[in-house]
Design brief:
The protein has 340 residues and is an alpha+beta fold. The protein has three domains: 41 residues, Arc Repressor Mutant, subunit A (Orthogonal Bundle); 35 residues; 208 residues, Nucleotidyltransferase, domain 5. It is 49% helix and 9% strand. It has a four-stranded mixed beta sheet with strand order 3-2-1-4, sandwiched between helices. It is elongated and about 95 Å long. This is Transposable element Tcb1 transposase.
């Protein structure tokens, strides 16, 4: 028999209050719209136990004591990669025999769930220090400054990339039916490299990188696209150019080329994709292109240009207007990676 839902503590206290005022079971039941038998049960329990609180049940006792639960929580919070089997052995060594499944269930009840770790750049102490310094020195910049930044980056689009769906609903022993499989092609089946830029006012130019990009080709891409994007996005004369620390971006020839151009360069901390909001737009772009299922590299490029132009201005504006939140997050975690 399924246990019925218990009445709230407030309701049970009302029953006792009315009973003490001399009201009978039938009258209380009518006043509170509660079955008469329930009224009697609440009152009898109060007379016997002196409380309306829900008392501990007489069912099977918990396998783990509160001390053991606290140990498990401390252990996984200190060492998130520890397995349930390792925890089971730890408890077994001190005389507590439980299954690994019991440990998993206990941790889930405590709000701790086994999840695939997020992939983040490997940060050295020097990287963390640089990221923290960048965040602290820029966190108080006015929004007007960030609105005048031209954010740039490169990304790779694949015909059969990781954006494809990875889950299917199927029955047991039906894994290899064609409809339940995900066709793969060696080396991704074709891919393109793209350079792009955007600002608070919207997306800028997007260009395909031919072959393997070197410093000279990178400079040509900037020469063909940056100033046109600055003009189209109306960034004004006091705009700022952002790029990461890829070797092609920081080579001797590129530095000399940028110095001749006289652009204001945003000093960038290494290993910091989470600080570049264009990464969010790349994600949007890849999802949109994947939905259209390009059949070849030509369609892949065409769809990419089409979807890049469709990205709403509001999306760009929101990413830039919340940039201070990224910096505050870096400061909070002392230079480590953030959720962005």
């Amino acid at each position: 028999m399924v246990k019925s839902t218990e009445w709230s503590r407030k309701t049970r206290e009302q029953v006792i209050t009315l009973h003490r005022k001399g009201n009978g079971y039938k009258k209380i039941a009518k006043m509170l719209n509660i079955p008469r038998d329930t009224i009697g049960s609440i009152i009898r329990k109060f007379k016997a136990k002196g409380t309306v609180e829900t008392l501990p049940g007489r069912g099977r006792k918990k396998m783990l004591t509160s001390t053991a639960v606290r140990y498990l929580k401390r252990r996984v919070e200190k060492s998130p990669r520890v397995t349930a089997e390792e925890l089971r052995k730890d408890l077994s060594d001190v005389g507590t025999e439980v299954s690994a499944q019991t440990i998993r269930r206990t941790l889930r009840n405590e709000g701790l769930h086994a999840r695939t770790p997020r992939r983040t750049p490997l940060l050295s102490p020097k990287n963390k220090k640089s990221r923290l310094q960048y965040a602290k020195s820029h966190v108080d910049k006015p929004q007007k400054f960030w609105d005048s930044v031209l954010w740039t980056d490169e990304t790779k689009l694949e015909l059969f990339g990781p954006m494809d769906q990875r889950y299917v609903w199927r029955r047991k022993n039906k894994a290899y039916e064609e409809k339940n499989t995900l066709p793969t092609v060696k080396h991704g089946g074709g891919s393109i490299m793209l350079w792009g830029c955007f600002a608070s006012a919207g997306t800028g130019k997007l260009q395909r990188v031919q072959g393997t990009m070197n410093s000279l080709q990178y400079q040509e891409i900037l020469d063909d696209n940056v100033m046109q994007s600055v003009t189209n996005l109306r960034l004004g004369r006091r705009w700022t150019f952002q790029q990461d620390n890829d070797p092609k971006h920081t080579s001797k020839s590129t530095r000399a080329w940028l110095q001749i151009k006289g652009w204001n360069i945003l000093k960038w901390p290494s290993q910091s994709p989470d600080l570049n909001p264009i990464e969010n737009l790349w994600w949007d772009l890849k999802k949109a292109v994947a939905v259209r299922k390009p059949k070849n590299v030509t369609e892949l490029e065409a769809f990419a240009h089409d979807e890049w132009a469709k990205i709403p201005v509001d999306r760009c504006k929101t990413l830039v207007s919340s940039y201070a939140s990224r910096l505050k997050a870096v400061i909070t975690v002392k230079g480590c990676c953030t959720k962005y």
